[in-house]
Amino acid sequence: MRAPIAPLAILVLVLAACSGGGTAPAASGPASSPPNVSTAALSGAITIYGASSLKAALTAAQAAFLTANPGLTITISTDSSTTLETQIEQGAPADVFLSADTTNPAKLVTKGLAAGPPLNFAGNLLTVIVPTANPAGIASPADLARSGVKVIASGDTVPITKYATMLVANLAREPGYPAGFAAAYGANIVSKEDNVAAVVAKIELGEGDAAIVYVTDARTSTKVTTISVPADANVPATYAGVVVKASKNSAAAQAFLTWFAGPAGQAILASFGFLPPS
Prior knowledge:
Elements (H helix, E strand, L loop, with lengths): L6 H12 L25 E8 L3 H14 L3 E8 L1 H9 L6 E4 L3 H8 L8 E6 L1 E6 L19 E4 L4 H14 L8 H7 L1 E5 L2 H9 L5 E5 H6 L3 E4 L9 E7 L6 H12 L1 H9 L7
Parallel strand pairs: 1-2, 1-3, 6-7, 6-8
Antiparallel strand pairs: 3-10, 4-10, 5-8, 5-9
Helix pairs in contact: 1-10, 2-10, 3-4
């Protein structure tokens, strides 16, 4: 996990990247390269739909971006990436969609609902969390398959579930893990929540013994303890975003997405434990 960036360093990067008239480099590579958009003289309003794991980082990004663009209003709505993508399909008034995967933004592109290709803006890894008191005595991820352990998970279509399923499959091949680990883990799931934030809340309340979440979620909670997973079994998550084609303020929406994927946004994301996009 990357060490947190000092607050002063974050502020310097944010102010440098937000200064009036700043223009991002033109896109010349893959979809993950930010396009050429100026953040000068932005006004009006935009609504950002973001994965629940981005909530804290987006709140910080909102404050920084508005400091440089006081004529703009930003509304943030967070939930499962899959839920947000479905809402956008159904006509929800989002301007920017920031997903915890690349699949959901790609769906909007395929359906003609995005203004351009997905832009990769962050990465993440997985970890296991338990309540601070750890009443079940979870010592390693292998204990997730132990009889009687109550595992909290997300719904089948939520991105964290896809990543967690891959992690469990990787762990099942690790030396010392019990035969039938994946099946036993699945049998221990007692609840499937709407998004990863709800999973963390259940563990914080002691309503479950353990859960697989993003590293960033573990960092932002003071009521859970982290149980690390073997590095060679971990699963990298890639976050991607798009501007929604129906946006009423596409210039501001594109400017924010470009800025968020640029140096200032990366500094903020890194301070919450996110990795650079892959």
